[in-house]
Hints:
Number of strands: 9
Distance between the termini: 50 Å
Shape: globular
Radius of gyration: 18 Å
Oligomer: single chain
Helix content: 25-40%
Strand content: 15-25%
Order of helices and strands: EHEHEHEEHEEEHHEHHH
Number of helices: 9
Structural class: alpha/beta
Amino acid sequence: xxxxxxxxxxxxxxxxxxxxxxxxxxxxxxxxxxxxxxxxxxxxxxxxxxxxxxxxxxxxxxxxxxxxxxxxxxxxxxxxxxxxxxxxxxxxxxxxxxxxxxxxxxxxxxxxxxxxxxxxxxxxxxxxxxxxxxxxxxxxxxxxxxxxxxxxxxxxxxxxxxxxxxxxxxxxxxxxxxxxxxxxxxxxxxxxxxxxxxxxxxxxxxxxxxxxxxxxxxxxxxxxxxxxxxxxxxxxxxxxxxxxxxxxxxxxxxxxxxxxx
Length: 261
């Protein structure tokens, strides 16, 4: 049975964290390592995580909970700490406010995870957007392609970060670039997919919703800065001419969609 590492980054997250913890605790898959990397929260976050760790142990659900709390240099620095600590064969980032779509999501993911040199580099699925109460709002507009490659993200982040299960050995060779404040996750996914292509490793589409993503996240709150960073990420990987052409198409597409409504 493959171990799956779930990394949750927190900072003063007492209002959004409980739903995430409940989601992980509800997973029927037993071999789960839950790494909670906290940035020295000043609210009730740490108390919630310790209560959760005790509850997980009491239920004997096969989940190992590891809590680290110390100052960091931002969310991606904390994610790199999680990467370094992970001991599972696959890793996924499920931050405060996000949650697994169903109690058997990790059971389904694990069916694709094997312990071999040719195991899939990435196992991925679809994402629902939910509100703070976990109520469904809409399916994420960008849907996963049937066949994923590093070139797939030229038209946007086709797979949500929370629906992207990477082989931990590849992920640990590919830390998040701390030059980015809002879009290092996009860059990270592309670099892992490039590494997969270089090693001729498959990437598997699960053809199901695996993540519920909280609508109001840090990237949403910092939309313009995020867009500027994403333009830089796209230019870095796909070249400036291709990136300019794709953004011109985005503008045209938005105008067409507005005219239709």
